[in-house]
Each structure stands twice: as structure tokens, then as C-alpha cells.
Amino acid sequence: MDRGRFSIIGFDSAWTDKPKAPGAVCIIRSSMDEKLSYVEPQLASFAQALDIINRECELTELCLVAIDQPTIVPNLTSLRPVDRIAGSLISWIGGGVQPANRSKTGMFDDNAPIWRFKEALEAVEDPEAARRAITGLYLIEVFPALALAGLNSAFCDRLKGPRYNPVRRKTFQLTHWHSVIETIRHFGTLAAIEQIEDWCDITGSLLLPRKADQDKLDSMICALIGLHWLTAPREQSMMIGDLETGYMIAPCIDGVHDRIVAKARENGVLINGATVLVSGI
């Protein structure tokens, strides 16, 4: 599809709005001649991210915001159905899914920053419509940990998920940090994003990455998920859940993982807008 100019904005929001612990934003742009470039990730609060998005919308016909935070949370307690499905794979590879519910003050209560952000953003939250669009502002929810398992088969095995959060000193491994960066390098190079190797070289050279560095890295992953959703064949991505109870968008280069399929069937959760049948999707 010829969309002309478009921008993907990856936003690792950090879920709360603490001045000393902001999230990060990264932009991937497509020019009229379909060349892809990126704007280096930068730390950003919700308000700063909103300003960045508004400025970007003035430069392009189509803008897709890919945010690493639950955007639809109707449940008062426990987990959303989509969290249970994603968690079936994430726990198997050695990670975890933070429960999203309205009882989490500062994250999803009525006064949480995510709702003010969405209200001010005024974006269309319809992932499938975003794929068909040539103009407008759209929002999708993404999850970097789930995306990495779909982009790099080495991460998608029992307890093989990357431990690249520097805050978790007991589990953080610099080799895993490098593996995530190489995954970004490979994916970005295949997408022909200009000079993505430069960013990967700089980020990979950090001897002691900080949480802020990981936030920037995750914002790049968010942007790449959005780019993949918008431009790759539909069968190479999955939408788990729905627009009423919550959803996630993630790459699945080799198809939807069996654990996702089995858990979705067990819980009656939609994948790609359809009920999972006994024989498959």
C-alpha cells in the first residue's frame, strides 16, 4: 500500500508519571520516496510525549503511536484476559506480565495519567483500521517482551527470554543486552531503516546500562512493532484480545506460538479477531 509519508512513534510510558522516572519516545519515519529513518530515542513524560506526537502529526499524513502500556483496562481486579494469554508464553521464557486492573492507583485508576494522555491524544484505537489507513492518528498497545519472542526464535524457548533490565541486578546480563540490540539491528536492517546500525553500535557499547537506557531501547522496540504491524504481511503479526477487554499487538514471524493458541482456546480469548478453535485459529 502506498501511504506516502507516515510516522511510527514508540512510547515506553513507564506506566506512571514520575518526573524522576520518565518513559521514552522513539520515532521511525517514512518519507515520500518510502525511505525509512529514525529519530533517536529520548526520555519523555506523558506530557512531553504528547507534544512530540502533536509535532510529528504536523509533518506526516499518517501517525501510529505504539505504546508499551495497557490502554483498555475495564477490570477492577486481577488480570485482563489478554494478560493471561501473553503471560502463558512470557512466563515460559522466564519473564512476567504485570497485572493491569483499575485498583492500581497511579497506573489505571480513574485519575491515572494514561487516561488523560488518551483523552488529549484523540487517536483512533483500532489496530486493524490503522493497517488500512493512509491518513490520521492511531494508537495501539504493544509489549516489547512478547515482541522479542516473536522476532528472535532464540528468545522463544524455555527460560530463554532476555534479562536486559539493568534495575534487576541479580538477573541482568550484559550479553542479553547485546542480544536484544542485535535483534533490533537485524530487524531494522531488514526494514532498511537508514543508519540504524549507528544507534545499535552506540547503545551496544554501554558497559553499565541504566534504566533510562533500557527505556530508550524499549521505545525503539515499540516503534519497530508499530512499523511491522503497519507494513508487514498480516499473518506475521498477532492481535491478542479485543477492544472491549484489552488487547496486545506483537510480531509473530513464524506464526502464533502454540502456547498462545492453547491458552486463548482455554480462556475463550480472541486472536486476530477470531475465536480459537480446537483445530487451530
Summarize the structure in short:
36% of the residues lie in helices and 17% in strands.
Tell me about the largest β-sheet.
5 strands, mixed
Strand content: 15-25%
Order of helices and strands: EEEHEHHHEHHHHEEH
Count of discrete structural domains: 1
N/C terminus separation: 26 Å
Name some characteristics of this structure.
globular, alpha/beta, 5-stranded mixed sheet, two-stranded antiparallel sheet, single chain, 281 residues
Describe it for me?
36% of the residues lie in helices and 17% in strands. It has one domain (6-267). The longest helix has 21 residues, at 211-231. The strands form two sheets. A five-stranded mixed β-sheet has the order 3-2-1-4-5. A two-stranded antiparallel ribbon has the order 6-7. It is α/β, with parallel strands linked by helices. The model has no long low-confidence stretch (mean pLDDT 94). Helix 1 (46-57) runs parallel beside helix 3 (113-121), helix 6 runs antiparallel to helix 7 and helix 6 packs parallel to helix 8.
What is the fold's blueprint, element by element?
Layout: E1 6-12, E2 23-30, E3 36-44, H1 46-57, E4 62-67, H2 81-90, H3 113-121, H4 127-132, E5 136-141, H5 144-151, H6 174-190, H7 196-204, H8 211-231, E6 237-242, E7 246-251, H9 258-267
Parallel strand pairs: 1-4, 4-5
Antiparallel strand pairs: 1-2, 2-3, 6-7
